[in-house]
Structure prediction request, 629 residues.
Amino acid sequence: MARAITLERGVPRFSMRPRVGAIAKHAVLIVVAVVVAYPFYFMITSSLKDVLEAARTPPTIFPTELHPENYSDAWNRAPWGRYFVNTIFVSVTVTVLELITACLAAYAFARMRFRGKGVLFTIFLATLMIPAEATLIPNYVLMSPSRNACLGLPCLGWFDSYQVQIVPFIASAFSIFLMRQFFLSIPNELSDAARIDGAGHLRFLWSIVLPLSIPALITAGLITFLGSWNAFQWPLIVTSRPDFRPVQVGLSAFRQEAGSSYHLLMAASTFVVAPIVVLFLVAQRYLVQGIARTGIRG
Amino acid sequence: MAAEVIPAKVRASPRRRFPIETLQAWLFLLPAVVIIGIFKVIPAIAAFYMSLFKWDVIQGAFRGLGNYTDWLYDSALRSPDFWRALSTTFTYVIFTVPLEMAVALVLAYLLFQKMRARGLYRTLYYLPYVTSFVAAAAVFVWVFNPQYGPANAVLGLVGVGGQKWLEEPSGIFELAASAFGITVPTWLAGPSLALVVLSLVTVWHYLGYQIVIFLAGLSNISQEFYEAARLDGASERQIFTKITLPLLSPTTFFVFTVASIGVLRSFDSVYVLTNGGPLDTTRTVTLLVFRTAFQQAQFGLGSALAFILTLVILLFTLVQFRVLGRRVQYG
Prediction:
């Protein structure tokens, strides 16, 4: 991405042309930027208006009077503390466990010789093509109360729980591929040296491979965390009580509840979006790199 | 006997190390295999099994392909819903993907050149992608609110009457024609305005993601091609159409497939923005699966529908593998 084309260079041009071109380019980029950013701007400004001003037409560009208390009002209207604890617990647990399973599996595929490797790798590759819709109904049945039968055994009975939101997601073929690509790039000399020093696979993975793979770990972790934070359909169907519901389902319920208290809904949307946006701004380099890499490799 | 023992022993030394490593490798793979097996592979097979039965919460009689034929042509209740949902889904793809790709490509091309504030633009374009559709919908439903929304305020500025946006079941061509007092036949009405707004919000959401992929594709094109073209006196437009576009074609095709699959299987956007309405004009196949299975508790019928959708998605994926395997590229 660092290589940039400098199209102006080389061909002699009128001195004004690059300038006009640059202005036109920025004009296009700015127009799109305004369209992309407007919903965020609208969300934040509306969240600071009072109820009457939030519904005024045409909308005021900026709140005439700032009402930061909307945030505490919105917060107190629904069990947000509970929702956030649920989402943070589920997202962090899924991310950590998923990285562990992905590193172990990726290491085996990248650096170990074993029987059945080709077949297993192909099966993993194939699972990437199975859309979530195809497995949604059987997984729902699998989670249903244990008096129901799943393939002759009692079902798991996991509705309204944390494990229903965690366990199915602690391994993903996608993360395994991402980590495998990275592990393949670690030079063989390192593993030879480690073997001569008497280190086994687990030791080599833990003390050499993982420290070298921190950027890849952050990338895979971020992608998993983002998916878990924004998860909606699955928690919507397998949870029914606030005790275990995540923020996205909570926000969806709050939309009905807030009704015409639009300023409160915007305040709630802002604090649901804010943590992930901040995380993205801090770590965007890794996320963007990861998407560019996996995107191209498919 | 003894003659057989010796060669076996000779072979044993390279062979014995192998099973131990195999055992260890399988231990490393065990957690991933168990989880993916239980929650992905077995359910995929189970979905097909369930689709062969009458299955309303509990398993009923074997129906063979009855659930499939119900959707496709047999049931006066189901098949009109299916064909309508399928056509809505494809319309959703058609109104989303080309626009999304064209805008992303142009922006990526501009951002690829040396310029000020490049990082800032990219960050900004990317923000919608990390925002959940639930939060985005809360905002957009208000932006497009017929009574209070800023969308109609903007239309008012340019002297166009207010629209019902996400609540408008009429077709966009029908609406455009009626502005000039023309009535168009039903087959020319076009997709509902609600579906088009849904497409626009989807474009907003995925734009940054596609820009990143296009940027990566652009950086894979060797600098030498540009230099050679410049030496030959090619114009900027010629460089774009004769070098950038052809060499970028694998990326373009990849983005096309990923974006199409993304829209084919999208649920959150539809559920939170329109929930299938108005007048079912945005009821996609995924939403129909959701309603059949989780609101009408028809798991067999729902599984059959999900399986049909999966086949469509698989077809897209396979075409991608075939074409990318042949490489849509020169050089």
Notes: Chain B touches chain A through 108 residues (CB under 8 Å). Chain B has a mean pLDDT of 86. The longest helix of chain B spans residues 2-50.
